[in-house]
Amino acid sequence: MTSLQSFTSRRTGAIMRLGELEVRPDELQVLAGSRRVGLTTREFQVFLVLAERCDRVVLRPDIYELVWGGRMSRRDRSVDVFVRRVRGKLSIASPGWAYIHTHFGIGYRFSPERIGD
């Protein structure tokens, strides 16, 4: 079983609604309204790790272990790069919303919030 298969096999079935987003784990898709958010497989994995732990801070090494399947070195910036990519794509697809929040030096928290309300 590949890491993607083992990653997604735990997440079959339920569609999640988070803010303006609809998450379809079986299809590896995120929709904003009726528009598909063009996430790569790895971006989707990072997104899903955070979304499934909504309103909780997820440590950077934990994200790395869950998505890449290993231990993160101190200098590795993969998590940060992928979170930045996901954040950018979400902001384009769902303007007026903030989804991923940074906890500097610790990790990230997924929590849908309207901007400017």
- What count of structural domains? 1
- Quote the distance from N terminus to C terminus: 45 Å
Write down how many β-strands occur, each being a DSSP E stretch of 2 or more residues.
7
What is the name of the CATH topology? Arc Repressor Mutant, subunit A
How much of the sequence lies in strands comes to: 25-35%
Provide the residue-averaged pLDDT.
88
CATH architecture: Orthogonal Bundle
Briefly, what CATH class? Mainly Alpha
SSE run: HEEEEHEHHEE
The whole-angstrom Rg is 14 Å
List low-pLDDT spans.
1-10
Q: What structural class should be given to the helix and strand makeup?
A: alpha+beta
The rough form would be described as: globular
Task: Reconstruct the topology from this structure.
Layout: H1 3-9, E1 16-18, E2 21-24, E3 29-32, E4 35-37, H2 41-51, E5 57-59, H3 60-68, H4 78-93, E6 97-103, E7 107-114
Antiparallel strand pairs: 1-2, 2-3, 3-4, 5-7, 6-7
Describe the structure in your own words:
The chain is of the alpha+beta class and 117 residues long. It has one domain: Winged helix-like DNA-binding domain superfamily/Winged helix DNA-binding domain (Arc Repressor Mutant, subunit A), CATH 1.10.10.10. It contains 4 helices and 7 strands, in the order αββββαβααββ. Strands 1-2-3-4 form a 4-stranded antiparallel beta sheet, with helices on one face. A 3-stranded antiparallel beta sheet has the order 5-7-6. A hairpin with a 3-residue loop joins strand 6 and strand 7. Helix 2 packs across helix 4. The chain is globular and about 40 Å long. 26% of the residues are buried. The N terminus is likely disordered.
